[in-house]
Predict the structure.
Amino acid sequence: MLYDYLGFAFEHGQELLDGLWITLKLLALSSLGGFLLALPLAVARVSPNRTVAALARGYSALFRGTPLLVQIFILYYGFSQFEAVRNSPAWFVLADAFNCALLALTLNIAAYMAEDLRAGIIGVPHGEKEAALAYGMGRCGSYLHIILPRAIGIAAPALGNEVVSQLKASALASVITVLEVTGVARRFSAQSYSTDPLIVAGLLYVAVTLLLSLLARLAERRINCHQPR
Amino acid sequence: MNDLADYANQLLAGALVTIELALTSLLFGLLLGLAAAWAKLAPSPWLRHPVTLLSNVLRGIPEFLIILIFYFGLSNFLADHFDGAIEISPFFGGVFALSIIFAAYSSEVFRGAFLEVGRGQLEAGQAYGLNRFQLFCFIRLPLAWRTALPSLNNMWQSLLKDTSLISVVGLEDMLRKAQIGAQYTKQPFLFYAAVALVYLLLLAASNPLFGALEKSANKGFR
């Protein structure tokens, strides 16, 4: 059995590596984009302005309360229903399966990361916020220099978990024909009527998950290195 | 909008399949998760290590891939060994895969929750003359249940959303029905948005249920 797996992995190593590259591209780009989107969302979430806070909460509820697969279908198939969308520049993103999957993954992880960062912002010790005020910082300055950096440190373990989950979520891109690891494995599995390619892909994910968890823990320690333990 | 009304019955039937699938998988997932947590805490290393390893490996693989592996793996196995005399339906395959996924994650929660149960509580039970079975049913399980509930709520939400993945292997759940409707009416946005709304409603409806469960589990705690 092990021989079968190894045989498959060697025979189709190039295709698997190509798939892995696409998986990692989806993971890195969507995590980075999602994080940048989550920062303003989290700040909006704790805003004293009720409308702004409600909008950010609605965004999170919408993306966390529906299956990612449905979100992907809405972006990839749903918007093609409207001619206005097909004629707009947005079609450049929505017409391509990879871009579409990337967009869905980015919007999705942003909702989860915003909740983590919100918890981080709330968890920043009150004294540190007061210290920022004492230094004469305004709202903007204190968020930029004090609150957000500290909130990111507090939320780091949760954010790391989101990235690891995102690796697994990226497998859904294969449903709209993106040839990432799962997509490659599904193609070989259908050709050979065997589950071996799927199992090899699964082991590949396990290896990447282990590596990511390790990286996340290192990054977490790096971000919080100035904190007393 | 009229197109949606024409397919309302179909979508409703699909929603029922989704709910049935989620609840059945929850039941088996909980039982399997409890059994796996028990194995992870067993004194015998021959039980503890394999189950821990399996659960860790399963938690590192995408849910979608696990579903494909178990569904097609089971189909191929049955085809090879029973010459097609037994076939598994997408529903059964879905329950099988989703329960295993749920168990892999929930066993970790249960394990932690069992460890949280205070020694004093168990000793009090022993002092009352409870035997091991009674100790488990009346002291250990209710106390662990209380600690585990918030995480189980999160996992139930993931489970309900993950049922949509079974549509890819052909189960006529809500999402599959919407796909069919979208194809015939050429109005994919309408159908997928409607399905998204139903998922939102289902999840919103399960929140008060868990709230009530948590309230009853917290009886006697301040």
Remarks:
- The mean pLDDT of chain A is 92.
- The two ends of chain A are 48 Å apart (CA to CA).
- Chain A has one domain: 2-223.
